TrEMBL record:
HAMAP family, sorted: Methyltr_PrmA
One GO term (biological process): methylation
Gene (name only): prmA
Protein family membership: Belongs to the methyltransferase superfamily. PrmA family.
Name of the protein in question: Ribosomal protein L11 methyltransferase
InterPro entries (alphabetical): Ribosomal_L11_MeTrfase_PrmA, Ribosomal_PrmA_MeTrfase, SAM-dependent_MTases_sf
Gene3D superfamilies for the chain: Vaccinia Virus protein VP39 (3.40.50.150)
Keywords attached to this entry: Cytoplasm, Methyltransferase, Ribonucleoprotein, Ribosomal protein, S-adenosyl-L-methionine, Transferase
Function (record text): Methylates ribosomal protein L11.
EC number annotated for this UniProt entry: 2.1.1.-
Binding site residues for S-adenosyl-L-methionine: 162, 183, 205, 248
Cell inner membrane recorded as keyword: no
Signal peptide from the UniProt entry: none
Catalyzed chemical reaction(s): L-lysyl-[protein] + 3 S-adenosyl-L-methionine = N(6),N(6),N(6)-trimethyl-L-lysyl-[protein] + 3 S-adenosyl-L-homocysteine + 3 H(+)
Length: 316
């Protein structure tokens, strides 16, 4: 089959929004190249796993490539894609340089081109993300392996927003908790939570493509065999009393999620949010405080922020 590749060069902060635009335009998948992901592969306190100089990579901004089957007449939808990307500035996201190009690719190239960018990466003190096709064994005591196949819809799990979420999960998880993962994407946070000792996990995403990708990745990790994953609009219609809710999604979506999270948390529970760019941080903080959450920790990586919010008990 012949495929058409539409590539958008944009900023790091607009990656998720541009990916959503491309998927909503009918793409069968996207490939994400984010300069911040490659920066995270440099030596750090967890030790270097691969040599950045050995893999091709971009050095600034981000590039999202979407793939459309030959049944889609791409020139017809391209103007709409360009218009929607340009309008991201209306929502506080910088789409620059906003360069949109189109090219034909073969089925084989579509299916395998992204694999050269994906390698084992230590993302926290105890967690290493490993692609499903690589043979990697733990090199340090207490190192847990999460096997992921990002397919064509999701990144490698090493974006700063994901790293911050994982680090904050390590902070609040003690073992045996009930956790809800909102906007699960590749399922990485649900898998990590089980690896950290969480008892019950519910994972939700609005996109059926994400639900399938998450289930495929859950199946690669026996520790996460009992995770429930389903399509849902945030927590609409969900009536659960969880100990922890985690949401690594855009700030614009976090704000309406706040009252839903409060309703689905036990008193004394934690609400972890990530995916918050600099200029949206104050808005999210205000929404959390207005809902009577107590902020216990704020972490930052580059322009991205993550928050641990605590729902007080009557005794607090």
């Amino acid at each position: 089959m012949q495929w058409t590749e539409v590539t958008v060069k944009t900023s790091n902060e607009a990656v998720e929004a541009v990916s959503n635009i491309l998927m909503e335009a009918g793409a069968s998948g996207v490939k994400i190249e984010d300069a911040l992901d490659y920066q995270n592969l440099k030596p750090d306190r967890y030790g270097e796993i691969i040599d950045l100089a050995t893999i091709p990579h971009i050095t600034a901004g981000a590039q999202i490539s979407a793939y459309y089957p030959e049944t889609v007449f791409v020139p017809e939808i391209l103007p709409t894609i360009k218009q929607r990307v340009a309008k991201l500035s209306d929502f506080g996201l910088d789409p620059a340089p906003n360069e949109v190009t189109m090219a034909a690719v073969t089925d084989e190239a579509w299916a395998t081109a992204w694999k050269k960018y994906y390698h084992p990466v230590r993302v926290t003190r105890y967690l290493t993300i490993v692609p499903s096709w690589e043979d990697y064994q733990p090199v340090q005591p207490h190192e847990s392996i999460m096997r992921l196949d990002p397919g064509m819809a999701f990144g490698t799990g090493t974006h700063p927003t994901t790293r911050l979420s994982l680090q904050n999960l390590e902070t609040v998880i003690h073992g045996g908790e009930h956790l809800i993962d909102v906007g699960t994407g590749s399922g990485v946070l649900s898998i990590a939570a089980k690896a950290m000792g969480v008892g019950q996990v519910e994972a939700y995403d609005l996109d059926d493509v994400a639900v399938k990708a998450a289930q495929d990745n859950l199946d690669l990790n026996p520790v996460a065999a009992d995770v429930k994953v389903a399509a849902n609009d945030l927590l609409t219609g969900i009536q659960t009393q969880a100990d922890i809710i985690v949401a690594n999604i855009l700030a614009e979506i976090i704000v309406p999620l706040v009252p839903q999270a409060k309703a689905n948390l036990k008193p004394g529970g934690y609400f972890i949010t990530s995916g918050i760019i600099d200029d949206k941080f104050a808005t999210v903080m205000a929404a959390l405080k207005a809902a009577d959450f107590k902020i216990t920790q704020h972490t930052q990586m580059g322009d991205w922020h993550s928050i641990i919010a605590y729902l007080p008990t009557d005794e607090d």
